Amino acid sequence: MSGLDDLAEGRPGPHRLGPLAGYRILEFGTNLTAPMATMLMGDQGADVIKVEPIRGDQLRSSGDQRSGVPNMGAMFLNANRNKRSIALDLKRADHLDAALRIAGQCDVVVQNFRPGVADRIGIGYEAAARLRPDIIYVSIDGLGDSGPEANRRVYDIVVQGIAGIAAVQADNVTGAPTTIRSAIVDKATALVVWQAVTAALLARERDRASISASAC
Description:
InterPro entries: CoA-transferase_III_domain, CoA-Trfase_fam_III, CoA-Trfase_III_dom_1_sf. By secondary structure, the protein is of the alpha/beta class.
């Protein structure tokens, strides 16, 4: 865990190397999609700050628990390496204010709440953009942000079923649908988010360079 003042005032974390060194990422993520996406950014040198609920990311209790440290399962440790972390109750005004102060010091926000939740809490795009107009904001959801299925709770195996992946993997004898047991949809989504963020950062830098050149 990191100190609130260090995070909210933009003090850098440990010196990092890599193509994303110098960029700061704020993650409101649970389970695998958002955490894995930001983990990859951290692997490339970004300073990733993870905001967890007071009870902690539920991924902490998933998978192999042989680390010897409570709530530090193997899946959690793998998906959250190279990060600083702070636990906040975003329903509390002072904690929400702290989260927004941190957001104002970040280049990118990544969250995987259900559609509408981030806006309702007060950490949606509009709130973040008021603090930093050029912020890159990523919302990850399972079935889009509108339509009859938008508010449905979605996990990897649900999307495997909807997308037909489970049917393609059907048992040769019984024909029963079978899911791929490696969270393939979550991981593929994380890869897409990772690439989209790096592309957005590149586009933003080019826009700045173009504006600077035009002003000369």
